[in-house]
Amino acid sequence: MSAADAALVQALPGLAFAFVLLLARIGGAVMLLPGIGEAALPPMVRVAIALALTVLLLPVLVPLLPPAPATPWRLLAMLAAELMSGLWLGWLARVFVLSLAMGGDIISAMLGLSNVIVPNPAMGTEATALSQVLGVGAAALVLASGLYALPLGALAQSYRVIPAGAFLPIGDGAMAAVHGVGASFALALRIGAPFVLASIAWQVTLGLAARLVPQVPIYFVSLPGQILGGFVLLAGFATTLIALWLAALRATPGLLPGLG
User: Model confidence over 233-244: pLDDT tens digits?
Assistant: First the structure.
């Protein structure tokens, strides 16, 4: 056995530890990252993506990784910390993408379609049909526009913010989650704002009509017009709302650790 082969054999345990440590964080993130972490994607595909990312990042991130611990309990603690960091990062990136689906819920409520709900496999709950369509469209837009590169870049840079094997700081993690959820809700409200304003104007008009003609069942007469007008408004604003959503996502990478 040559000296190079002996050195390689001696380095294998350290490389195996580094691979498993990276896979814990990367695998946890891939479970929730938008686009590549969708429930509709076969599990084997997501596992292959996690393994491929780990192999690609291993040569770059090895200098940032700690040495292998001496006890198995310490190893389990480090793996648990990495898994939690990956899940937190993946969830934080997904929260931004969910703003489009939340905007769909707001629009559905304004159109009078909030009672028509369908199962949502991504969230494990039920959602409006429009929210479901926009949620699927959001994943497709993330992949088509290349926005998936932002959370992947944050994942690679997170090792400089959250040291490998260290638990996520509770205060900083909670603050980032609060800012992420707030930004997502604000973006969802911006997406649904035209329909909120139109609904307010529509309801005021119906109130005046009900006072002027109390014999007419205004609600039953107006509901088809409300739905039809809402779909016409949605068709007119769809391109603008999608462009607004994409621009807002590109402007929020500072909320992800490592990209600020």
Answer: 888 888 888 888
